[in-house]
Amino acid sequence: QVQLVESGGGLVQAGESLRLSCAASGGIFSINSMGWYRQAPGKQREVVATITQGGRSNYADSVKGRFSISRDNAKNTVYLQMSSLKPEDTAVYYCNAEGLFTTLGRRVFTSWGQGTQVTVSS
Question: Is it the case that residue 104 has pLDDT exceeding 80?
Fold first, then answer.
């Protein structure tokens, strides 16, 4: 069992910033990748940014230059610093983690948080 808990969402005006946090806990042997995804009303869930244990990151074209993902491996926590927010960034943001369980023969897991709402007003 691996649990992810997101925090940091809220309501902001266009041009402002938010910082999202996601902490993973449970029977974790290692986490290879963590990331942030979002889903806006009427749209499919899309990847926003991902980061490997080694610190390699990838971003959706729509957020490049505005968002920054980072992680604290010791705390199994991933962050998303969002700057210059736009109304089109409004969505529920979900944290994701992929890695290996401590038990169960080191089986791979993928886990999702419950989501945190980000609303950007114009």
Answer: no
CA distance 27 to 23: 13
Q: Which residue has the tokens 């925090």?
A: 7
In three-state form (DSSP H/G/I as H, E/B as E, the rest C), the secondary structure along the chain is CEEEEEECCEEEECCCCEEEEEEEEECEEEEEEEEEEEECCCCCCEEEEEEECCCCEEECCCCCCCEEEEEEHHHCEEEEEECCCCHHHCEEEEEEEEEEECCHHHCEEEEECCCEEEEEEC
Q: pLDDT at residue 57 above 80?
A: yes
